[in-house]
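User: Please fill in residues for this 517-position structure.
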């Protein structure tokens, strides 16, 4: 039983098989012909795929985050080419055997009849299933790319607690290959800061033992000993030693109390500043100013010193861009003179312009001071966002590639369907159907396939996007905007891919179409 308008001849490809049977071609020869034809197409496609892979690998390596290892090991080599060749041959065989076997059973008389104008119900269902599968896969990738993209935007605008614009930073080692006393370190840092502040364009300068997003070099476990009320609570915090001007250099707000001054020296009362998060976590609703905490003493294992809280500042992210602001405490550099520091300078103009002057200024104080990796704080922020940005770009590229393949498949399926329904279209036009009616009929066919692919793809995305949950920041795995953007974009593309063959169908001459039948 055939569909309406379907001729007995069947697909045109089977008619070709019948034509080749006419000169007494053997079944084996017909099979080899089909394999050769499919192999040629598969190998050309495989070569194009390898070329795209080479370009894609080069682009991926250029975007590879510095924190991820073995970027040099990513390349298109012999095993990859062998795999691509084997896959192309396998696809050629799979795609050729079925039609070839059907062609072997095709009669000579059927092959000599005109080729068919519509496909069988089974062939149409197979093409539709392939297109729906492609569309569904592209939907999953599109939703994933939209989720990661929105997450990246939220991440970049989340803030790290400091002002990154016009700030230059550098790694500084005061004791490289030499032993320095605490007094020598304090004196050297004072001279370095005075020299850096004299550089034209430098507004503020300070030193610290850690940079935002770099992680702290020292962590303390704080225990509540100030009131003795209730059980003791342990709380791990990042500990940093800073100079007084660091907070103004980074634009860190003072929430309560005071900042460090030059009077906070090694001979004065030990003091500390806490982050707002630490103050809330450790003191609750109590006023933290004036509280005394027992902190481990550097250089004395098991030793502790009583330190007074004199101020509270805003929270800063030290360990990760996608993590909440860390708890932290700050000690005056004069009370904890570490030999390994970060120099931070705020400039009035482009910070990269003073990078060389910073190096020369430090070398002018003491040529034995090691200065390394002079960069801007914006570069530090970009480096912290490199890995999530790489994930987003990679998944986005895969989504675009899948969407392109799905669109080409949808266009091909609709165009092929239109070519096989030329007679039907001609009859419709002859009976009074307008060009708009014909165009709408064909576009609706493509949109119907797209809607089916959307249904399957969105269902799969709902189940699979949980995998991305740990990579998201400020966005849920079921974010409505991401799940809405993918269907809208795909439907628009489906309409465009269907419109081109629809216009061709609408221009069919009914007389010529009926003559073909």
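Assistant: Residues filled in for all 517 positions:
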């Amino acid at each position: 039983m055939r569909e309406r308008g379907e001729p007995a001849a069947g697909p045109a490809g089977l008619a070709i098989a019948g034509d080749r049977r006419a000169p007494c071609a053997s079944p084996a020869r017909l099979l080899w012909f089909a394999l050769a034809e499919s192999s040629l197409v598969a190998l050309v496609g495989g070569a194009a795929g390898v070329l795209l892979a080479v370009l894609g690998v080069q682009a991926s390596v250029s975007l590879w985050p510095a924190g991820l290892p073995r970027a040099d090991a990513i390349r298109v080599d012999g095993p990859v080419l062998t795999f691509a060749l084997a896959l192309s041959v396998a696809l050629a065989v799979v795609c050729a055997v079925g039609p070839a076997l059907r062609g072997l059973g095709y009669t000579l008389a059927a092959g000599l009849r005109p080729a068919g104008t519509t496909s069988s119900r089974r062939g149409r269902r197979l093409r539709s299933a392939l297109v729906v599968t492609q569309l569904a896969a592209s939907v999953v990738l599109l939703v994933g790319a939209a989720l990661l993209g929105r997450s990246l935007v939220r991440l970049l605008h989340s803030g790290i607690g400091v002002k990154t614009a016009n700030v230059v930073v550098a790694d500084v080692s005061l004791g490289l290959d030499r032993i320095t006393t605490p007094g020598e370190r304090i004196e050297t840092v004072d001279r370095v800061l005075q020299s850096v502040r004299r550089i034209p364009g430098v507004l503020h300068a300070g030193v610290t033992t850690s940079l935002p997003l770099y992680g702290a070099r020292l962590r303390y476990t704080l225990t509540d000993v100030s009131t003795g009320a209730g059980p003791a609570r342990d709380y791990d915090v990042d500990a940093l030693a800073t100079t007084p001007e660091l907070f103004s250099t980074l634009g860190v707000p003072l929430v309560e109390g005071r900042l460090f001054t030059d009077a906070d020296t090694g001979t004065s009362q030990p003091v500390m500043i806490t982050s707002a998060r630490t103050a809330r976590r450790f003191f609750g609703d109590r006023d933290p100013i004036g509280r005394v905490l027992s902190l481990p003493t550097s250089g004395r294992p098991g030793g502790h010193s009583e330190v007074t809280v004199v101020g509270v500042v805003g929270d800063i992210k030290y360990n990760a861009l996608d993590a909440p602001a860390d708890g932290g405490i700050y000690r005056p550099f004069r009370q904890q003179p570490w030999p390994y520091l970060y120099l931070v300078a705020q400039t009035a103009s482009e910070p990269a312009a003073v990078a060389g002057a910073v190096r020369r200024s430090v070398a002018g104080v003491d040529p034995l001071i090691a200065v390394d990796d002079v960069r801007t704080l914006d570069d530090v922020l970009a480096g912290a966002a490199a890995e999530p940005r790489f994930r987003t770009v990679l998944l986005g590229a895969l989504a675009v590639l899948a969407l392109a393949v799905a669109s080409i498949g949808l266009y091909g399926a609709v165009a092929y369907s239109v070519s096989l329904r030329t007679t039907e279209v001609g009859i419709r036009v002859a009976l009074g159907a307008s060009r708009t009616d014909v165009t709408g009929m064909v576009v609706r066919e493509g949109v119907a396939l797209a809607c089916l692919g959307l249904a399957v793809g969105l269902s799969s995305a709902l189940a699979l996007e949980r995998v991305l949950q740990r990579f998201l920041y400020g966005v849920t795995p079921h974010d409505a905007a991401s799940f809405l953007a993918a269907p809208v974009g795909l439907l628009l593309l489906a309409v465009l891919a269907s419109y081109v063959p629809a216009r061709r169908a609408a221009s069919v001459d009914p007389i010529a179409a009926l003559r073909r039948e």
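For context: DSSP finds 15 helices and eleven strands in the chain.
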